[in-house]
Write a structure and sequence with these properties.
The chain is of the alpha+beta class. 24% of the residues lie in helices and 46% in strands. The chain has helices at 2-30, 110-120, 147-151, 186-195, 200-212, 287-299, and strands spanning 35-46, 50-61, 67-78, 81-88, 93-94, 98-109, 130-142, 156-168, 172-182, 227-238, 245-255, 258-262, 264-265, 271-273, 278-286, 306-314, 324-331, 338-339. Strands 3, 4, 5, 7 and 8 form a five-stranded antiparallel beta sheet that branches. Helix 4 (186-195) crosses helix 5 (200-212). It is elongated. The chain starts with a helix and ends with a strand.
Amino acid sequence: MKKSFFNGLAAVLSAMFVLLTFSCESLEGLVQTPEVSMDSVSIAGLDLEGISFNANYSVKNPYGVSLSIAGLNADVNYKDTKITTLNSTDGIKVNASSTSSNKFSFKVPYETILKFASSLASGNASSQKTLPFDIDGNITLDVSNVPALNALGSNTVTLPIVTDFEVPVFKPKLSVSNFSVKMPTLNDLKDQLTKGGLGVTKALQVATTLLSGNKLSANIFDGIDMDIDVVFDVNVANEGGADWNLNIKNCALNTAAGSIADVGTADGSSTLSSDKSKVSMKASLNTIQAGAFIVQLLNKTGTNPTFELDTGLTFPETKYAKNIPLKYTAEIPLSSVGRK
């Protein structure tokens, strides 16, 4: 009886040992793990310093409890050269049994792009259109809410993130030139002024004064309603070799008090490209609304105005989205204002 009892107990203990041994060795293989995928690398925008990228990724949570991202570490590289290292410990929640998308951002300076492009082409960066970059790193997930992984002594899971992307060889050069006040003829001025209620003699005096080039009084446009145009050129170029198209969206001419006039292209076109890098602009200034500013332009005295340009840039030979934001602001020295 005792022997039978002990034999039975031994069999039970043996079975439990086998079960426990199987569980310890096989539990990790049986527990489904989260997945991280790199979805895309996109250009977020450009400024006068460099190109900003978004690295878009997804985390798939197979568990019935939520997870959080405990850390991210990634290197941005050109071949074997590290450009920058990204580190983050911001906790981002991934809901139970779901997939969450997120992104991390970084900037590649233009000077870095041109340096590597020049090294490939004997100092001629303009002969290169794109460069191969990559992201190599990992994401650490906090899995302390997952009992099965806790049983294995794991509170975190680290998963790799690796992807390649291309960088356009691009450094914009924007400038404003030939800023001038477009003066009407003497007869045109006389006609406009007399239509506004001035007598012929007074209109002729004002018109002559405007066209003389002499310093104008601050109140010369008082009671006069007429438009005077300012014209200038916007020049865009690329120090690299990437092809580009630039779509002009919004432009404005501003003073210290705010916007003084909307600006448009003189011929109605709104696109520049690698083949056409200059566009003529025009703004009409009304003497009632902007008389004091017109006097400042013609007298070349006062606070310099600024020109603001809002554009969308497209690299037609890459897979990046069209009309990537690029803004430009230029101060217009009053000393450079001409007359036409």
